[in-house]
Amino acid sequence: MNTLIAIGAGIAVLGALGAGIGIGIATGKATEAVARQPEAESKIRNTLILGCALAEATAIYGFVIALMVIVMLK
Fold first, then answer.
1. Is the separation of the CB atoms in 1 and 61 below 8 Å?
2. Which of 11, 34, 38, 59 is such that its CA lies 20 to 30 A from the CA of 48?
3. Nearest Cα to 12, choosing from 74, 70, 72?
4. pLDDT at 1 over 80
5. How many CB atoms lie within 10 A of CB 59?
6. What digits encode the pLDDT tens for the residues 11-58?
7. Which residues are within 8 A (CB) of 68 and not within 5 positions of it... i.e. 6 or more apart?
8. CB contact set of 41 (below 8 Å; sequence gap of 6+)
9. Are 66 and 12 a contacting pair, CB within 8 Å?
């Protein structure tokens, strides 16, 4: 049973992988956008921070679910 709990928690944490990839792609695109239009830096930065916060929230939700799986099913 402990093995299944560990597998379930690992799958729940996989959401952090997607969030990390998404934040990396968004940061790269924002850097390219600032390089092309330096005068729009503040708008690009604000949008990037909002997008990164939303992507990071999904990773945190996955982490919380993994902790709940471990604690509740032990």
1. no
2. 11
3. 70
4. no
5. 19
6. 888 878 888 898 999 999 999 999 999 999 999 999 999 999 998 898
7. none
8. 34
9. yes
Tokens read off for 26: 């968004």
Q: Is the pLDDT reported for residue 4 higher than 90?
A: no
Give the whole-angstrom CA distance, residue 52 versus residue 49: 5
Strands (DSSP E) contained in 1-74 are: none
Instruction: Write down all domains in the chain, each with its CATH number in brackets.
Output: 8-73 (1.20.20.10)
Read off the tokens for 3: 């093995």
Q: How far apart are CA 18 and CA 40, in angstroms?
A: 28
Neighbouring C-beta atoms of residue 8, cutoff 10 Å? 15
Distance separating alpha carbons of residues 12 and 73, to the nearest angstrom:
14
